[in-house]
Amino acid sequence: MYKRLLLPHLQRDPKSMLLLGPRQVGKSTLLESLKPDLSVDLASPSVFRDYVTDPARLERELAAAGPTVRTVLIDEVQKVPALLDVVQVFSDRHKGRFRFLLSGSSARKLKRGHANLLPGRIHIHRLHPLLQRELEADFSLVRVLTHGTLPGIYSEKDASVRSQDLRSYVDAYLREEIQAEALVRDLGGYARLLDLAAAASGTILNLSALCREAGIGYETARRYLEVLEDTLLLFRVPAWSGSDRASLVAHPKRYLFDIGVRNALLRRPLDRFLEDEKGLLLEHWIAQEIHGRTETLWPGMSLFHYRTKHGAEVDFVLEIGRETWAVEVKASRQVSAASLAGFSSLAPRVKRLTRRIVVFLGERRQKMGDVDVIPLEGFLGELPA
Hints:
By secondary structure, this protein is an alpha/beta fold.
């Protein structure tokens, strides 16, 4: 099992918690490693039926639990949001008696069900596909850019099986289960938009053009994008605005949560990545690596992209307290002076541009004026763990 960077944070946190993340990122495995005394797996059809028809069952079971039962795991809690009311009752009336470990893959389902999200009673954490630091010696850039980093898929040694698993994930979950959760009605329109969102992953989406290509209305497309974000399958990187907003692009970039899922949706060959997409895929993966550290692993860090209406851009802008980092990603072993143009555009707009970084595929660090040119693994090694 891969050692998740989030684990020490969860072990140190004595409070009850809700762990959010897409299916198969390893939420259950991570929470099970905290050794719960009682587990309720709502992903099991029979267990789901028991609790959805009688949510008060959990209250009776907790009331009858002996003194050795201290930690309670409820997996996929969004399937029966009413159980959160039981958690609140025991958290308020029996303070310190139980520590609840909750997992969920759909914030939307919880919101739509008017679920009690227990403000002030639980800490919310998010789990993402595997990060490079978690892969350790098993890290392969080719495998990452081809099959992504969902734990069960990445750990499979047979590349053909990894490919089959990815296609199954896309078909069985992203398409069928989203509909089964009653999140969308028009599965055909949703599937078309999903494919188009995959094709545009890592870019600024033109929603009007997306509507025309998918053959659906604007409000429907906007709602489906919300579904993708609320089910944690898509994340957005907002545009950095600064003070001179009139000359800057204000729209966010959106990224699918995993490169392998993106490749499977687009029916790319899954025995290798396409060489002409290498730059796009590398930037996509760096976005995942940084985004996967937001909140718990890197509190206080905010991630943006920068682009002017005249076309100057920087892939990522990181605001960390009073510091600002500008990061460009290059899928090459050489870096030219032309690669630094975006920094020159951004620098006058930032009060304190602390670091200018180019991440590249060379082997040794370089210095180009005030720009740090850092090999890929060296840059990732500087990120919080």
